[in-house]
Amino acid sequence: MAPPRWRTARPRVKRRIVRQQPNSSQSGGSMSRYAKLCRLGCRALAAALVGLLASCGDEVVAPAPELLVIGTEYAFEAPQQTASGIVTVRLRNNGVEELHNVAVVRLTHDHTLQDFVESKARDPISPAWAVHVGGVESIPPGAEADVVLDLSPGPHLLVCYHELRQPGEIRGQPHHALGMIAPLEVTGRPTNVPEPESDATLAMFDYGFSLSKPLVEGPQVLHVIGAGPQDHNVLLWRLAEGRSPADLIEWLESDRTSARPAQPLGGMTALSAGEQAYLPLNLEPGEYVLVCLVSDREDHRFHVSHGMALEFSVS
Ligand SMILES: [Cu+2]
User: Fold this and answer.
1) Quick check: is 302 in a domain?
2) What separation in Å is there between the alpha carbon of 245 and the centre of ligand 1?
3) What is the pTM of this model?
4) I need a surface site. Which of 24, 144, 145, 305 has the fewest CB within 10 A?
């Protein structure tokens, strides 16, 4: 069998920033900050690419630095250090049969990897000091997918939240408990790369998704915003012929031993309130559903069970 074809879209990173939300004075403030960042990035580029680039005009396209994370059963192979700022995180699933994801978690208040492990052993709900800044949602063996994150300096973790399920189990053991967790130090040296241009904005809140405009066929970049108060993630599913969003939700809430009513197409791992990241997509015509599979702080049910799902079609 040929390896599954996955998203091939790469985020377009341009000097000129186009924002999907031209509202409020905040937006104006950030524009000037980004304009400054662009100028800085542009100068760095010009210095680095002397002789290759004739000018520093609008045509210059600078790819974000890549952080390659290789996932297997059950370990990550990844750099232990990366620059702060805009970074493309690429997950390659080199596993045999399990789906894997990689969530990037910022450790605050001097907490450590060990604190995280101990906290998770006590309570599956993430502690407030573990800030989720996005990552690549679950993809199958042989697949590769990207997200673009804006990393702040400081200690971070790479965490796989995918669960190993035994037949008949509603909840399985998370891969991080089996070894899929690694430290990542984000250094103070910035990448000086501007944010990618996005085509639409997806805000995630308790409990729903708000999409700024319809998603379309082909490559596009989704600006994903954690609007809180809880952490939220977004998983993209393409419904099988004749299956409904209700079928998918019922299956997600089950022990998942029956045939999948939809194909998982990755997505963005959790974003804490106030965090944002970019998700490149390449959509074919079809029926899709976005769901959040973060466990609720209060009742520990998936957020999709609280209504956090959005159906859309691409024609
Ligand atoms: Cu995994």
Assistant:
1) no
2) 25
3) 0.80
4) 24
Cα-to-centroid distance, 296 and ligand 1 (Å):
21
At residue 284's C-alpha, the angle toward residues 282 and 289, to 5°, is 85
**Domain encompassing residue 153:** 24-230+262-283
* Ligand 1 centroid from CA 161, angstroms: 7
Measure 28 CA to ligand 1 centroid, in angstroms: 40
Report the domain count for the chain.
1
- Measure the CA–CA gap between 230 and 272, rounded to whole angstroms: 7
Please choose, from the candidates 223, 256, 252, the residue with its C-alpha nearest in 3D space to the C-alpha of residue 237. Answer: 252
Q: For residue 23, how far is its CA from the centre of ligand 1 (angstroms)? A: 39
**pLDDT mean over 227-233:** 97
Give yes or no for residue 119 having a pLDDT over 90: yes
Residue 89 maps to which CATH number?
2.60.40.420
**pLDDT band per the 50, 70, 90 thresholds, residue 169:** low
- Ligand 1 centroid, distance to 129 Cα (angstroms): 23
> What pLDDT was estimated at residue 63?
65
Secondary structure element (H or E) that encloses residue 302, with its range: none
CA 269 from chain center: how many Å? Answer: 4
Strands (E) in the chain, as ranges, are 66-72, 75-77, 81-93, 100-107, 130-139, 144-151, 154-159, 163-164, 173-174, 181-190, 200-205, 208-211, 218-226, 232-239, 262-271, 276-283, 286-291, 309-314
In a domain, 276, yes or no: yes
